[in-house]
Amino acid sequence: MVIIRPIELSDIEAVQKVARRSWVDTYQDIYSIEYIESFLSKAYSSANLEHSVIHDQKNEGRRFLVAVLPSTQEVVGFIHVLKESEECYELLRVYILPEHKGKGIGTELIKEVRNLNDISKLKAWVEELNHMTRKFYEARNFKIVGEEVTTDDGYTTTLICYEKSF
After folding, report:
1. Domains contained in the chain, number
2. Residue 116 CB coordination number (10 Å)
3. Which among 5, 25, 58, 88 could disulfide-bond with 121, CB atoms 3.0 to 4.6 Å apart, if both were Cys?
4. What CATH number is attached to the domain comprising 59?
5. pLDDT tens string 82-109
């Protein structure tokens, strides 16, 4: 299926590609393309990702993993988690290239993070209108535990908090 390994600095461009394609595919009916591009230019800038890679390599409470096709070494997805408390990690980002969704890669990334960190609880915030991702978490027995209304760059949205105990 895929090889899951820690992100390397040489993966940054591939992660940017996965993020851009996933964000457009997932959010084009929710946000304007201008907002998506603005968000991506900040959150997935080379400098921001370099900082994350370097910081995460030094910090056991953070994990940034990529899913790579063994045949081509193409990065087709990634997951990034942060230790929130002794028992809980937060999923900061999980994205899979659109043509590779539905193949179990997201599930494998979550399993790998859980195994690496001996996690007892995992939490994820999801845009309320992101029905595809909400279905993904619900199908894996994540439960809704809260919601929050936020405003960013003029967009007000509701985020749903999912949690799963292991």
Report:
1. 1
2. 15
3. 88
4. 3.40.630.30
5. 999 888 999 999 999 999 999 999 999 9
